C-alpha cells in the first residue's frame, strides 16, 4: 500500500537539502506549501501593531507571516518509512526538539496521477 509522507519544516533554509534527501529515499514528486503554525501565530498577536484590537480569524490569516514549509509526497509500498524519516533527520537534525519540524506518514488507500518511484523506476534513472 502506498504511503503519504508529510512534513512541516521549520528551517526553510534546509528545504532544498530535504527535497534531495526525499528523492534519494524514494520520493517521486514532492509538493511544497507555505505554512504557519497556529501556536506561533497566536503567540504573537499581542506583539503585532498591524492587527485590530480584537482580530478575527480572517484578520489573522490575511496578516500572517509564512514561517514554515509543508512537504507532501506519496511513496510506494517498497519505501521503508523509518529509513525515509532517518534520511530527513540526517539533514535537519533530530525532530524531537522544539521548533524543528514534524514528519508523519499515513496509508494511502488509492492514488491516481503522479508517480511514486519503485525499485524498477529508480534503476532506470
What is the CATH architecture assignment? 2-Layer Sandwich
Report the sheet with the most strands, covering strand number, pairing sense and barrel closure.
4 strands, antiparallel
Determine the mean pLDDT. Answer: 80
User: What structural category do the secondary elements indicate?
Assistant: alpha+beta
Strand content: 15-25%
Strand order of the largest sheet: 2-3-1-4
Task: Classify the fold: give the CATH topology.
Answer: Alpha-Beta Plaits
What's the count of strands?
4
> Helix amount, in percent?
25-40%
Number of domains: 1
Number of alpha- plus pi-helical segments: 5
Radius of gyration: 17 Å
Report on the structure:
It is a single chain. By secondary structure, the chain is of the alpha+beta class. It has a single domain, classed as 2-Layer Sandwich (Alpha-Beta Plaits). The chain has helices at about 15-25, 40-45, 55-65, 80-90, 120-125; strands spanning about 5-10, 30-35, 70-75, 100-105. It has a 4-stranded antiparallel beta sheet with strand order 2-3-1-4, with no helix packed on it. The protein is globular. About 15% of the residues are buried.
Question: What's this, in brief?
Answer:
With 125 residues, this protein is an alpha+beta fold. The chain has helices at 15-25, 38-43, 57-63, 81-92, 119-124, and strands at 3-9, 31-35, 68-75, 101-107.
